[in-house]
Amino acid sequence: MLPTSRILPLLAIGALLLAGCSGLPWKSGKVPDGARAKVAILETTDIHSNVLSYDYYKLKPDPTVGFERTATLIQRARKEFPDNFLFDAGDTIQGSVLADYQALVKPVACDQELAVYRAMDAVGYDGGTLGNHEFNYGLGFLSQVTGTPMNVDGGHDNRCAGPHYPLVLANVFSARDGKPIFKPWTIVSKNIQAYTPDGSAIRVPLRVGIIGFAPPPIMQWDQHNLAGKVTVSGVVEAAQKYLPELQAQHPDLIVAILHGGLDTHPYTNAMENGGWYLAGVPGIDVLLLGHSHTQFPGPRYAGMKDVDARLGFVRNVPAVMGGFFGKDLGVIALVLNRKDGRWVVDLDNTHSEVRPICPEKNQCVPADPAIAPLVESVHQAAIAHVNTPIGSSSVPMSSYFADEGNMSALAPVNAAQIDYVRRELPRTHPELAGVPVLSAAAAFRSGFGGPDDYTDVAAGPLTLRSAADLYFYPNTLAAVKTDGAGLRAWLEKSAERFNRIDPDQAGEQALINSHFTGYNFDQIQGGIHYIIDVSKPVGQRITSLTYKGRPVTPTEPFIIATNNYRASGGGNFPGLDGANIVLAAPDGTREILAKWIEHKRQIGASDLEPTSWTFAPLKTRGTVVFTGRADKLDVARAAGLTNIQWVKDNGDGTAVYRIDLSH
Fold first, then answer.
1. Distance, CA of 215 to CA of 219 (rounded, Å)
2. How do residues 269-281 score in pLDDT, each as one tens digit?
3. Domain spanning 394-659: which superfamily?
4. Is residue 7's pLDDT more than 50?
């Protein structure tokens, strides 16, 4: 007699023969209770138009990024899980030189599909949602390139070429008619293989409802593009509004696609990362996450309430966040049980994982050869554009040690912003002509994405590529009016970039607070100097603040040049909510920087203000360490940071450095 382990597969083969090999759905009535199926939900997020494994700033291939390699992971996952659905969680169309070229330099025509969508269509997606960066180029561009006519000011009326998969978004509405600017939800259906209780294999349709959400703070971050044109609701409120409609269509599963992460702070309808609360809305079976540029499941979320950061559950809902820049693929291996006439997720046999394109250093999966030819012409055009000469520099500019006091990559940005505001502000606000103008800039590329994620502009010829490297995002410039107290509060918030250092602790202490992103570490110049004491608690670290050598008083006025994201409330800086903006420039900061370089022609040390801050002297029993690019100690030395010493190589392109805060 054959063992049961042999009988069941034979029964399954026989059932397949009875059902036919055509893949047609089972026609013997309802799917019986007790049936089982395995379905994979695959996710990409935060691709940011990194279609190819290429670094446009260094003009060389970069195998650690790129959708063309994610596509290989997708192919492999589909072989492993023949029954699968592939979704994207947003921040898709912006974030690379290629994206800016197609949006700002040579905008795509109505009948042209964006390069990133062409690549994604070649792989075949089943649906997606929108992220906050989808709105960076304005509603007209978004309407056009997604093929979605919008009844909004500046929207596109024609149905242009867009992705060949549905985009859903439930919490952004037209200010004209109050209706969603995208479909809030839809249903996608595929035939899958299931097994009846006796082991027979059957083909049955699986109807998956998808509903999408963008982070509500887009109204602050892209105020100049969205104010008066759209309104936004919280993600929980939108789910509660539209889930009943979706549930009335009786889908087998509901997948919530959120461009947001996880946050257990008290919920508000403006919460940026509302995934934890969205998972608690009844009716959601699967949660796809994004925006946070990290991986879930993963150690970052270990210990979070009601979260399994190993198997990938948020409040008992299977969830995944598949990294960023095409570095990873999110996979949820769902096991479904048929119970009481419907499919139910078997939580005990379901799990999530994030699969990297580079599981080990120098061991990256090959690129899918079908992707590069689809975008080759626009790829080459983007390269030619960023090589346009704009000037030269006698000094190198990098962000390798921006957190430790080398402002060489920030000084040209601050200089260009101050120059612009001083020229433009008196035209609309002549009463502010005598107010001191300062400027805030942050190192957007400070190692978060790996050892190559730094700004590095060598001395010598400068091109548009150099400006794009120095200023990574397509922000516009904004200027705000504040006072000495507001300036100090701004600097205190920025100083949260550092952990509190205990001088009496004998062991190692990490200098950098990994939970405070580098792009929120604003460093302000324009004649001020300040001291940061990292032994002090948050909010009490700016121990000295002077302007042109004298102490800053709480009431003296200042104008601070920054970007539209910060001025409108991005990063939750005190006193910045859009209300005190005195200049909202139509020009992009990157373009302002490029024009400043063109005007200067030759940049030397005298054109760049020295670093405006220092650490307070602090003698520590143990060592204070940070992680940086492995081979750049000479950059620290050249910048005068003689208190930095190399400790050890991590073997992945990064190294541990020691910083002596006593001098």
1. 9
2. 999 999 999 999 9
3. 5'-Nucleotidase, C-terminal domain (3.90.780.10)
4. no
